[in-house]
Amino acid sequence: MLRKMYDWVIAYSAKPSAPWALAFVSFAESSIFPIPPDVLLVPMSLARPDRAWRYALIATIASVLGGLLGYAIGALLYESVGKFLINLYGYGNKVDAFRAAYAHYGHWVILLKGLTPIPYKLVTITSGFAEYNLGWFIVLSIITRGARFYILAALLHYFGPAAREFIEKRLGLVTLGLLAVVVLGLVAAAYLI
């Protein structure tokens, strides 16, 4: 089943609608959706290493725009939508500590958590809730999300064929490793927030 999904995403990468799907997932992941854009960005960049930079730009712009939606949810709808989303991911009892961290380390929180597998929506919603400066939020989001996606694009652009061969030979192991990174990121978030 994993191989079929991988083959489907690789084949889908050649379609004209693939960049739109990447944009949608990147946007939604920054505010409400649990799946990171890497799920599309990696296979799309492996299928077309010559377009890896373009895909990173799409993911960055869409992620920052989605982050603005997350910020708005935190600033305007925290009691209804924001609290629901934070509780859905199991971070409800950590929000006050996270908000207090913004008083001292807001810029570092955005920069560090935007690069990690910790759900970025947690950062965006809490930034709005904590009334973090919107201008700085946008600048830091561009830096951190851009760095994350462009580093990945650089690796896939330069090592794409070798990486694709490695991944295709060891798809199960690579998937397990990525899953472990995501789980460790969520566990780290639970303890660090």
Explain this structure to me?
The protein has 193 residues and is an all-alpha fold. The chain has one domain (2-192). The chain is 82% helix and 0% strand. The chain has nine helices and no strands. The protein has helices spanning 2-12, 18-29, 38-47, 52-76, 78-88, 95-115, 120-129, 134-169, 171-192. Helix 2 runs parallel beside helix 4 (52-76) and helix 6 (95-115) crosses helix 8. The mean pLDDT is 79.
Structure in a nutshell:
InterPro entries: DedA_domain (IPR051311), VTT_dom (IPR032816). By secondary structure, the protein is mainly α.
Domain count:
1
The percent of residues in helical segments reads over 70%
Determine the mean pLDDT.
79
Estimated structural class? mainly alpha
First-to-last CA distance: 36 Å
Which assembly state applies to the chains in this document? Answer: single chain
Point out poorly predicted stretches: none
Helix count, DSSP H or I runs of 4 or more residues: 9
Radius of gyration: 17 Å
| Sequence of secondary-structure elements | HHHHHHHHH
Q: Quick one: overall form?
A: elongated
> What summary fits the major beta sheet?
none
- How many beta strands in the DSSP annotation? 0
Beta-strand residue fraction: under 5%
Protein name: Membrane protein YqaA with SNARE-associated domain
Pfam families: VTT_dom
InterPro entries: DedA_domain, VTT_dom
Keywords: Membrane, Transmembrane, Transmembrane helix
Question: Which SSEs are present, and which pair or pack?
Answer:
Layout: H1 2-12, H2 18-29, H3 38-47, H4 52-76, H5 78-88, H6 95-115, H7 120-129, H8 134-169, H9 171-192
Helix pairs in contact: 1-3, 2-4, 3-4, 3-8, 4-5, 4-7, 4-8, 5-7, 6-7, 6-8
Organism: Xanthobacter agilis
Pfam families: VTT_dom
Transmembrane segments: 20-43, 55-78, 134-159, 171-192
